[in-house]
Write a structure and sequence with these properties.
The complex is a heterodimer of chains A (about 220) and B (about 400). Chain A has a single domain, classed as 3-Layer(aba) Sandwich (Rossmann fold), CATH 3.40.50.300. Chain A is about 35% helix and about 30% strand. Chain A is built from eight helices and ten strands. Chain A has a six-stranded mixed beta sheet with strand order 6-7-8-3-9-10, sandwiched between helices. The two termini of chain A are about 20 Å apart. Chain B has about 400 residues and is α+β, with helices and mostly antiparallel strands. Chain B folds into two domains: about 5-55 and about 260-390, no CATH class; about 100-215, no CATH class. Helices cover about 60% and strands about 20% of the residues of chain B. Chain B is built from 14 helices and ten strands. Chain B has helices at about 5-15, 20-55, 80-85, 85-90, 125, 150-160, 195-200, 205-210, 230-245, 255-295, 300-310, 310-350, 355-385, 385-390, and strands at about 60-65, 95-110, 110-120, 130-135, 145-150, 170-175, 175-185, 200-205, 220-225, 250-255. Chain B has a six-stranded mixed barrel with strand order 2-3-8-5-7-6. In chain B, helix 1 packs across helix 12 and helix 12 runs antiparallel to helix 13 (about 355-385). The longest helix of chain B has about 45 residues, at about 255-295. Chain B starts with a helix and ends with a helix.
């Protein structure tokens, strides 16, 4: 499903080029639950940006369902993000002025789905993440764990084939982390959604079927 | 993204930054308001200037005697017989009203006043639409009898002397005794009607021509048989005077004058509109400023939306609609403010108030265009942000 071949990524800081990814090779099969484990600064967020079509590699091939990322237009990248990928961020990244329901159905807004249909879908997902009674609350009125549940519901709203979660429990306490992690596991096992989890926590990585270690810009199998 | 969604989003966003939106709104309101006010005032002034002609009829013209060098002749004057034959000889002319102006002393009951005077024929009243307050106007049947009609100002002067019912009173003008047969109402002053109508006394033309200083006819009013024939009438009148009296005349028609005035007034209105537009531009820059601030404050939101799948166009449209909405609302309020201030100006000046629909519709349209123009750059900037840079910002 995901195929990364010799991915390099460097940023130029003034006159110096800093290489973050130094030849990443990785493949993810449909239905995988993969943890990318690594300490901070090893390049795992950069990897996630590339996996999520938020950024393009400097060199190397990245193919998603057989489509090469290089050569796709900005609009095509947007469409893939919209239809195929659901993002879950460490900082939740919910829009503060929108209610939970409105946040959840945001991906469908950009597909031109009708308001009624959007609302229905959002409500179903809100139930699924166990937040059925909080639909009209704004993010500021919810706890961290609740916000992350809303964010997960938003990621699921577009029916993606891949969920990319970047330190999804990084801002949560241990008990809440466990609940969120259980949610990911059940999504993977019961619905067959491919999940790529980026974390620095070996404990979380252990719960995943498969984990790889990222170290100094390259991926090593464990 | 659907339009309705965008508008909803724009309202929410503008509402959440009330103070800033309000300030930008004021800029647009002042801009559109001043354009509307200026243009409407220009149009009202134009209407005012032209109205007196309309009341008198645009089918009148003035025939003035010229000397050979192109100046007004001081000797001879136009022969009365030639003038009175004009309606028979020039088929474009319906009636003529030759007149002479004088300046002499008016005496009543031992009080004296200097007064201008006019020697007129019966058609003079009809030509210049002179209303009668009392009695009758000079008639052609008066011949050279010593009858006179008082202008508005002179009737007031007589009233100051204690004469409230002047018809039948005898006054002395230029050393001769006249019997007042009527009092004329005030006529709006202007280029066409001789100012003496309000200010002086009017006597029969034949009587005036027999005054000791021998006044002469240098000017004659005429009414044409219809509208839009002033060029033909001018040509006929010039030819007629050249052949029958070997005189050179200049013909000024109200129609021509109205056209000239229309042109001038349009320039004037345009100028006022241009001045107003400057404040509109300033308002537009205000909108741009607000939008730029809004974009930089909402970088993170832009990043989130892009990550979720918004295309560049979606982001651009979202911000563009926000600025258009802001300007559009400003435009509607501005039209109201503009029309309101014109109403106040009219109240104080006594002008006839009207709202120019074109200006109002245009004002709202222009405001939306201003929003589009000044909102384009910030919206484009927003859409060009890279998703990860935008996501990282706080």
């Amino acid at each position: 499903m995901l195929e990364l071949t010799d991915i390099h990524k460097s940023y130029s800081l003034g006159t110096v080029d800093v290489e973050i990814l130094k030849g990443v090779n990785l493949s993810v099969e449909p239905g995988d639950m993969l943890a990318v484990l690594g300490s901070s600064g090893c390049g795992k967020s950069t990897l996630m940006n590339i996996l999520g079509f938020l950024d393009l590699p400097t060199s190397g091939d990245y193919s998603f369902d057989g489509r090469l990322a290089a050569g796709l237009s900005d609009n095509e990248l947007s469409r893939i993000r919209n239809k195929e990928i659901g993002f879950v961020f460490q900082q939740f990244h919910l829009l503060p002025k929108l209610t939970a329901l409105e946040n959840i159905c945001l991906p469908l807004v950009y597909r031109g789905v009708s308001v009624k249909e959007r609302k229905e879908r959002a409500r179903v997902l809100l139930e699924k993440v166990g937040m059925g009674d909080r639909g009209h609350h704004r993010p500021g009125e919810l706890s961290g764990g609740q916000q992350q549940r809303v964010a997960i519901a938003r990621a699921l709203c577009g029916n993606p084939s891949l969920i990319l979660a970047d330190e999804p429990t990084g801002a949560l306490d241990t008990a809440t982390s466990r609940e969120i992690m259980d949610l990911f596991l059940s999504l993977n096992r019961q619905e067959g959604i491919t999940v790529v989890l980026i974390t620095h926590d070996p404990g979380l990585a252990k719960q995943c079927e498969r984990s790889v270690l990222m170290h100094d810009g390259v991926v090593e199998s464990l | 993204m659907i339009l309705g969604e965008n508008i909803h989003e724009a309202v929410r966003s503008l509402w959440s930054a009330k103070q800033r939106s309000l300030l930008a709104l004021i800029g647009i309101v002042i801009g559109i308001g001043s354009v509307i006010a200026m243009v409407t005032v220009g149009q009202i002034v134009e209407e005012e200037a032209i109205r007196q002609f309309r009341e008198m009829g645009t089918d009148i013209c003035m025939v003035r005697l010229m000397s050979k060098a192109g100046q007004r002749s001081k000797r001879g004057g136009m022969p009365l017989g030639t003038i009175l034959a004009i309606p028979d000889e020039c088929r474009t002319i319906k009636t003529v009203a030759p007149y002479v102006s004088m300046y002499s002393q008016l005496t009543y009951g031992g009080k004296r006043a200097n007064s201008s005077g006019l020697g007129v024929t019966g058609d003079f009243q009809n030509l210049f639409k002179i209303p009668m307050v009392q009695g009758r106007f000079i008639s052609d049947l008066d011949g050279s009898s010593n009858y006179c009609v008082l202008g508005d100002a002179k009737a007031q002067w007589l009233a100051e002397q204690g004469v409230t019912d002047p018809v039948g009173t005898q006054i002395v003008y230029g050393g001769k005794l006249y019997t007042v047969v009527g009092v004329a109402g005030a006529v709006p002053g202007g280029t066409f009607s001789p100012y003496e109508i309000n200010d002086g006394v009017m006597i029969p033309l034949a009587a005036a021509l027999r005054q000791p200083d021998r006044p002469q006819i240098n000017v004659c009013g005429a009414r044409m048989r219809g509208h839009g024939i002033s060029e033909e009438a001018t040509r006929q009148l010039k030819e007629y005077f050249t052949f029958s009296a070997r005189q050179d005349v200049r013909v000024t028609s109200a129609e021509e004058l109205v056209q000239q005035m229309d042109r001038q007034m349009r320039m004037f209105t345009l100028l006022l509109g241009a001045i107003g537009s400057i404040s509109l531009i300033v308002g537009g820059v205000g909108v741009m400023n607000v939008m730029l601030v809004s974009v930089s404050e909402r970088r993170k939101e832009i990043g989130i939306r892009r990550a979720i799948g918004a295309e560049r166009n979606d982001i651009q449209m979202q911000f563009l609609i926000e600025s258009v909405l802001l300007s559009f609302v400003g435009g509607i309020v501005g039209v109201g403010v503009g029309v309101g201030s014109v109403a106040i100006i009219c109240r104080f000046t006594g002008w006839e108030f009207f709202v120019s629909t074109i200006a109002a519709v245009l004002g709202v349209g222009v405001s939306a265009a201003v929003g589009m123009f000044f909102g384009y750059y910030p919206a484009r900037q927003a859409s060009r942000l890279s998703p990860i840079d935008a996501l990282r910002s706080d």
